[in-house]
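ingest -> validate -> predict -> emit
validate: passed (alphabet ok, no gaps, 302 aa)
predict: started
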Amino acid sequence: MKATQKDKKPMPPVEVKAQVDRATATTGDFIRYTLSASSEPQIEVEIPEMGSQIAGLRIVDMGDAGPIERDGRKITEKWYQLKADLVGSYIIPSAVFSYMNEQKEKKEIKTAQIFIEVKSVIEDKEAAKDIKDIKPLATIARDYTLFITLCIAGTLLLVLIIGGIYFYHAKYRKSKLLPPRPAHELALEELDQLQKEGLITRGIYKEHYFKLSEVFRRYLERRFHFQAIERTTEEILPEILNLQGFDQRVKSGAKKFLYHTDLVKFAKYIPDTQEVDREYQGAVNFINETKEEPVQQFQSSV
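emit:
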């Protein structure tokens, strides 16, 4: 017998889901992480921003879809394109969706954690299928023409290398190598160049904040020698908070800067003009307050 309308189990007002298109990947693979919500048409579901919580996996793109109507339900999605550069196990934490019910009470629905295993390409068993048996050795008639030609070419190359080394030392042996430019000089020049691009005046907020964040993270790498460009804000913060010789105000300013740039980069937040100027000046202030002081050189008189 066919099930009647009364036999059908009523759907909840809101259903949410978090999923990836592959739970096992190899280094260099792209992984699509999707958050979706299905709800009654009159309910507005807030999909959480997970960009700052995805640790270890690099976000290379993101976007959203919907809302669209399907079978009397409203469907909304948000997706992230992820990339794993290192072998290991990764966990994407639970996503917490929120919505208002008919009684105007705020409700939350939590998804399960997602586990992803990243293997080396060499370990992938599928790659081994492309390996073919080695053919037996073939007997080749000896011809010394190629050998003599290679010896002559090698001798000429060696003479050129030795001559080049001699020329280099003869010309530059008395010159001194210039020390590398300080990290703060490079960062301030990059910030000045970013201002000249005029992205904010053209309304291109996300690209401006991506570039602003990269300049700031590049300065952290050059100045304090820890990886920052390819790491998430949550992974960088412990390094900043453990910096020695700087007061808490400076560290808190860096933390606030990173969280605010993430908000514009990943959450579609549009800052006003005062916020843009404040974040730019905050980066400049942090660089000036943490820049490496020049080494004082003293000459002793005899």
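Residues 297-302 have pLDDT under 50 and may be disordered.
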